[in-house]
Amino acid sequence: MIRSIFNILLALSVVLLLPFSVFGDELSANIESAIAHIQNENFTELTSLYSLPEHYSEPQLTKEKKGINQALKLLSSEFGTVTKIEINQGDVRWLNMEIFGGDVDFMKSQPNFYQYVFQAKFSKLGNGFIIIREYPISSESNLRSVGYALPEAEENIPILQSIGRKLTELMFPELTSEEV
Questions:
Q1: Which of 19, 30, 86, 96 is most deeply buried (CB count within 10 A of its CB)?
Q2: In 9-168, where do the E strands start and end?
Q3: Cα separations (Å) of 119 from 76, 114, 129, 149, 157?
Q4: CATH code for 5-171?
């Protein structure tokens, strides 16, 4: 029962991050825009920054963008409004839910990307991170993914599992609760 689910992939993962300075201190205009859209909860504009497959038909693009938008809104409603955000300066480990755009073949065709991690304060879940990945292409639409994360800790696993179930239910409404 594999379906493209708006071709969004969810990732619940533990990640070790190298300091942000590996990427330098200047952020691209797209990353700065993405941060502003996250803070303002303008997910339609954030979705417009995603890089999506050129072979998608107009109806596919519309469906994909709608799915990304809905998934980002759900993450924001579960984590809460971002009340503070700044570049992360140290090594961190986190658990995240990440919203990708495009299908698996599209992502495989573009394996290179930059990753930016920001410390964030969420109004509902407290301290965490925003992870933004972008493809190294010159385009106004070059985001690979946006993720919301909590520090790696045993107590955060059930929180993210619950959010993951809600995202799965959003994207696969035909599944029963036992299948989720």
A1: 96
A2: 13-17, 82-87, 92-100, 114-122, 126-134, 143-151
A3: 15, 17, 5, 9, 19
A4: 3.10.450
**Using CA atoms, how far apart are residues 139 and 73, in angstroms rounded to an integer?**
24
Q: Burial of 73 by CB count in 10 Å (0-12 exposed, 13-18 middle, 19+ buried)? A: middle
CA distance 180 to 177: 5
Q: For every one of its 180 residues, what pLDDT tens digit does the chain have, with 9 covering 90 and above?
A: 333 333 333 444 444 443 333 344 578 889 999 999 999 999 999 999 999 999 999 999 999 999 999 999 999 999 999 999 999 988 899 999 999 999 889 989 988 899 999 999 999 999 999 999 999 887 777 999 999 999 999 999 999 999 999 999 998 888 766 665
Report the greatest alpha carbon distance in the chain.
46
Report whether 137 contacts 51 (CB < 8 A): yes
Return the closest-CA partner of residue 146 out of 113, 110, 173, 108. Answer: 113
